[in-house]
Amino acid sequence: MAEFRKFKVDLDSNSLVTSKKTVGDPIGFDLSFARDQSELSGASSRRSNLANRQAALFSLAQSPFKNVAMMSFMMWMAGAQLHLFSIMTTASGVYQPISAILKSGEVFPPDPEKKLDTLTPRLIYCLVNGLGLAYACYRIYGMGLFPTHLTDWASTIPAPIVTEVAVSSLW
């Protein structure tokens, strides 16, 4: 029965030993390429680290797009009627982008080494949140809560001064 076993485990050395033959390199494996990769200079490694950090900044800049899209969908589903849910959803759609834009300096702090571009990802972040704010304003307009017509401001217009007086007479 022992002749059917291909592998034998030696628990003392924690190694896996084959009984018949050794396993060769996988198809397409080139040992010289593996050695070349291990001998990379530190400068290219630093460049790739800098590129990875910049890519992470751009990924962070585009991350609120999913939140803005979901909030826009929620506002659309709430409808244009004046109900508690539609007003609360729209208020949240206004508050979240404004707070995100105001906190963008904390999300994208300036690089002390001055090697990373933090301005462009910060502008993209603010633009994405600005689009969410624009859609929230559109929903407010659709509900009729946005004062866009002259009659919305009629209470602030002073009454005209009377310049003529009409008097009736009996003769």
Summarize the SSE layout with pairings:
Layout lengths: L6 E4 L4 E4 L12 H8 L3 H21 L1 H15 L5 H19 L1 H4 L11 H25 L28
Antiparallel strand pairs: 1-2
Helix pairs in contact: 2-6, 3-4, 3-6, 4-6
Provide a short characterization of the protein structure.
The chain is built from six helices and two strands.
Widest β-sheet, arrangement of strands: 1-2
Helix content: 40-55%
Low-confidence stretches: none
Derived structural class: mainly alpha
Series of secondary-structure elements, N-terminal to C-terminal: EEHHHHHH
Please outline the major beta sheet. Answer: 2 strands, antiparallel
Tally of individual helices = 6
Distance between the termini: 140 Å
- Please state the average pLDDT score: 83
Beta fraction: under 5%
What is the tally of beta strands? 2
| Dominant shape | elongated
Radius of gyration: 35 Å
Transmembrane segments: 123-141
Keywords: Endoplasmic reticulum, Membrane, Transmembrane, Transmembrane helix
Family: Belongs to the EMC4 family.
InterPro entries: TMEM85/Emc4 (IPR009445)
What do you see in this structure?
The chain has a domain at 55-146. A hairpin with a 4-residue loop joins strand 1 and strand 2. Strands 1-2 form a two-stranded antiparallel sheet. By secondary structure, it is mainly alpha-helical. The chain has helices at 31-38, 42-62, 64-78, 84-102, 104-107, 119-143; strands at 7-10, 15-18. The model has no long low-confidence stretch (mean pLDDT 83).
